[in-house]
From TrEMBL:
Name by which UniProt lists this protein: Gamma-glutamylcyclotransferase family protein
CDD domains, alphabetized: GGCT_like
InterPro entries to which the protein is assigned, alphabetical: AIG2-like_dom, GGCT-like, GGCT-like_sf
Organism, as annotated: Streptomyces doebereineriae
A matching Pfam family: GGACT
């Protein structure tokens, strides 16, 4: 089954100025704009963050709309980056469709978001380092 062609919500190393932004997004996107994901908390992982679904939290990031001609290639590349394979219990992340709010005008958009897989979520809730601002860029 082919996944829906949704934009992506990125909140960590794929954000502008971060290590993976140009490597994966340059030349493949039509637009990117600030957004926020409600119902999630942000945890600092080993070199990258994890969004953990949790009522009352908010994660800040960018809503990225790929170019139509680069969509399939980008989806594969991001799944590989996040080490996500549909249905694999060893996944660190799960790719899920969630409502993301555009910061500029407050409109809601359905987007792909890579959230922590259940086993990672349990570990982070038990002993993870919460990024209280919900903004990966503020950790510095």
């Amino acid at each position: 089954m082919t996944p829906a062609r949704l934009p992506f919500f990125v909140y960590g190393t794929l954000r502008p100025g971060e290590a993976n932004h140009d490597l994966f997004l340059r030349g493949r996107i039509r637009s990117e704009e600030p957004g926020r994901l409600t119902g999630a908390l942000l945890y600092d992982g080993p070199g990258y963050p994890y969004a953990v679904e949790e009522t009352g939290g908010e994660v800040k990031g960018e809503l990225v709309t790929p170019r139509a001609d680069a969509y399939a290639e980008l989806l594969v590349a991001l799944d590989e980056l996040e080490e996500y394979t549909p249905g694999d219990p060893r996944n660190l992340y799960e790719r899920v469709a969630r409502e993301v709010t555009r910061t500029a005008d407050g409109t809601a958009v359905h987007a792909w978001v890579y959230v922590a897989a259940p086993s990672v979520t349990a570990r982070l809730r038990a002993r993870g380092k919460l990024i209280e601002s919900g903004d990966w860029l503020s950790r510095r």
